[in-house]
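User: what does the whole thing look like in 3D?
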Amino acid sequence: MQTNLIQNFVQNLKTPPSERKTPEFNIHHELQTKTFIKPNKSSGYLVKSNIFDAPAIMAKDFVYDLKSVKNGFNGDADDHQLGKINDVGLKIGGLAIAAYLYTKKQSPMTKSMEFIGLGSFLASMSLWPKLAIQLPAYLIHGFNVQQQYVDSFGRKKSFFQDPQFLAWDAYSDKELEKIGDWMGIPKDLPNRNEFTKRKMQKIAVQNNTLWMWTAGFATPIMSALICNQLEKPVTKLLGRINNKKNNQDIKDLDALAKEMHDNKIKNKVSSILSINQNKVITEDLIEELAKAISNGFDPQVKESVNQDLKKLLQTDLYVINENTLNAITANTEKTLLDAGFEKETIGQIIPSYNEMLKNFDNELGFFKIACDNEKLEKAFTAYTKKLYEKIDKYNEVAIKNPESNLKILSKNQIDDIKQMLIGSEITENPVMLGLKKEPYAVLNHNNQKLINLIADAFNSLKLNTAAAEKFVQNQLGCLPETTMANYWNDTIDTFVHGLGLKTKDIDLIKNDRLLATSFLRSSFDDIASDKKNYNKFMTKLIDQIAIQEKLMKPGDTREIMYSNAGNTKLDNFIEKSFKDFNGKITKLPGYKPSFMENTLNYIIGIGGQTFETRNPQGSLKQTYKDLAYNRIAEVKSSFFRIINTLDLYRRLAIGDPKYYPALHNKLPRALKEEVVEISKMTGIAGHTADYLTKFYKQIDPNFDIEDLSDIPIRNGRLIYKYAGRPAPTGKVDTPQDPRLFIESMKLSFENKVHPETEAAFGRNKKLLEEFKKYRNIVLNDVGNREYFENIHRMVTEDKTSTASDNKIFIEVGAATDEVLYNFCKRTSNTNKWLKMFSTAGAALLGVTIFAQFFFGRMQIPKPAATQKDKKYA
Amino acid sequence: MILPVNNQNPTPFFSANKQKKNEKEYTHDTLLPNNLSTRMRIGMDKFTNAITLYSAKGFKGSRNANFYEFLTMGQIPYLIGSGTLIAVFNAANKHYNLFDQPSAKALGNKMALGVVLYGLLKSASKPLVTAPVHWITGIDTERPYAKVNYELPDDIYDTDITNIEYHKVFESVDFSRWDLLLMDPKSGKPRNARYDIIAKKLGMGTNLKDSDQEVKPRIKEIVEKTSAAKSITSYLWAAAGVALAFQKPWESYFNVATLKFWDTKKFAHSMKIFGKSLVESAKAMYKGEGCKYKHAGKFMIYTPLAATVLGVLNVMRSEHKPSKLDSADIIEKERKYVVN
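Assistant: Here's the predicted 3D structure for the full assembly of 1213 residues, as structure tokens:
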């Protein structure tokens, strides 16, 4: 018969609750069995936190860590605290590594990544067990295998770290029942919670072991993947910060110069002066001073300062010192050697160092004092006298000892020597030149003051130029987070994205630049053959290129090649800095027009006596201005080149001769095809050298000159009849036929821009004007440039380009295929690495999670067989 | 702990020497000498057990798995992590563009060397603290002992229920194994002979009545300070190792590096260059070559050095003064005491 549960319930409900009896307490029994002695009730508890508590917990843990270190240092720590000190050591060591590697990196981006690397490594150590072990285990088994608890002493510990000593008191029965429910443990199992505990213990041990085996793989991979993913956002963020700072800096470059606090020049000069005060000014000292004054400038500045200092400190007095003696010996030796005397003989007849010293110092008393011409002449006479004595002595020895190898000097030979030493012009006299090697000047108070003033002028100039350099470097440098680098990368990303470059293309192109050329040729043909596609691509690309003006305001920095912007803040600052320098030099005591002339010629410019009248061409001042001009112009040229090449492809793809008058009716079809081919290919792959050598290309010399037809177009592609076909008699270069180069240049840079291209500029009218100017400049500078082999190949006959190589290099810009090739190389490396380690990371995560489904398998204990069961078994 | 009635294998053996294999090396907790061979044997034992026995027990969720095994398995992520870190910077290099490979390889090699030097210096630097402490105080904070551990049998046929764990006498400052430092009466030496030496070295006097009781607080303090200093300085030395690995002169070694020791000529040459590169790199690090801050290298060398010296000096500093009172004076004679 089945039990009626409802009836039972009602029955029980009616039954009044029985009175709870006070248990009997027998003191003798208790004392005998000591059952009243029980451990204190545990005050430990499980740590239950959520993400919002994390900051508070971290702060609390940090304080505990510091306390642990303090206690450890005082010898007052317990085991738990000593364990914490180890964690602190790990972090301090990590910070030391990151800080050291920080000092070895150049850019803020790479410097930042050192600390991001450390942070991501520590985060991965903590995140991996949480994400890959704790979370899946919780979902599968219903409890936290990485549970932490605070023991009765307030120490936070991992609950399952020691499976032999588990503080089960921290779990309530209710919690254990809930976990048991999740695990599917039968509710009627006797001692159910004990079984749950045993199962939890087993699962925790298995997961801890899994953690130990996976953490070593996971932590570095996870950390590297985090860094990889953070690289781009960090670059962008640093770029924004950098840009903001640049915009502030340009407002007050004087303040930036003051921030430099660099007084290296003044300090170094001051130190040299203090060591050498009131000493003789030697060539070495002038060299040393020039080096210190020009510290941080290019070597030419040092050379100029050296020459000027020599002139400034020059007097009519000379000093005879060690350098003088060596110079006399060297000069005399060389003169006699050149006259055909043997080295051995010369060694025997010219006075030695000690003999000279005896002469000049002991006998004459001229050593290391100021000597006028009279004294120098006395020294000269003493030297020659000694030399003649030695010649006589030499001859005596040679005559007395005929068996020796000494060759007797004939009278003629002796006369020759005398002639060389006495008779020669004073400016060529070897001995006198040696005696005048060291002009005598003393580093007296006036000289020191003068040098200090020069050093001060250079120091100020250095601070200002360093500020300008810093600004230019931060805005336009090659480092990853500069405004220009970010702008370049974003624009190339837009360009490449528009080309539809796939991963397999990247993997292929990175192997060979020629593959980039071929890819671009095909992509440009595709884009140009479809109006909608072309307009979309060009609009997007031009909009991106136009961002430059927003990032770098023309009033702050600019290029002067294509834009018509006036003087910028940077120009003004550089101008003012050099003017200040010029002012300081011209105000030096005793200034006259020839004062520091070499230095001013090189630094400010040549051809004038005032700052304004000096021509800055090739000067240091201009070099500083060109830093910004050239960098912006190079980037603009590279982007204009892409637009121009695509415009060419589009004009040709439409097939309307009005868009390419360069391919006129008088041009044979074969040449038309070659011109198109050259123009298309140089647009993509041409370097400066290709333009300067006038597109050296071999063609069939016997082409059909009667065929003047146009090149037919099919689906936007030109159908060639001659180009690319083998010539029966071989192909040759045609240096005297200028048409190939002239028409190619005209087709690329002179024929009007297609209206669709103009339309793609949209509101960017200013950029369009610059683009047109770019085309014109390239046409004139490159097209009219003389080339020594093919001098007649010029776009216009009456005009010769005077553009420098450097200017042409800037105008030509980067070859587009090279840009794509570099992009693919860089991207392919990252892709390959990412694929390898993201696959490994994903596989590891999969295995780690999958393994947990097999954890905690235990046989449910069978209930003990009752007597009744045994009876019917 | 309830000890088993019998942990000897009841199955008789009839062949010679067969039983010897099952004999345990230790039958009770045994103090071991702290020498190179013992340390190496213990290290090898722990490593092989970590990757085999303890891992197998762990994955099975054995009820005998314990904290010692968990901690011993801690070396697994260190070793695998080192290998993975090296792989992260090297494995993909051969797939890079030919022109990018040299720079990627140079960085990868430095990173690999950095990982190796990190581990080497971290381990090798610990005696820089513990050895001076041992010489000065007589306290060997690293003294190992073999612990005989009893486990629950896996099943009724499991009679081999003991295993050996290698601990250090002072690995726990809360539960140090003071008892193991007491001399065996059979040795003929006084029971507190070891403590007497320590007391003497610490300047607490000789012929103390209860030298063990007198020196225990000092030993505890010294062990804690040594442990703290060791933990911090070992990571600083490890950081110096990484800094050393990132010096340019190593590149000349990487060009000739080989581990093929059987090719003696090449291997000897590579070792010679290794030595030269080590010296050159140390100089470059000291001079701050390639660093924006030229004192960075010196800082990386002097910091761990100073920390080590300070750590040892700190150990010598003690606020615990030896008790001047005789134990008899502390006991109140009027009171009744019950001794169980």
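In plain terms: The beta strands of chain B are 30-31, 144-150, 162-168. Residues 144 and 265 of chain B are 41 Å apart (CA to CA).
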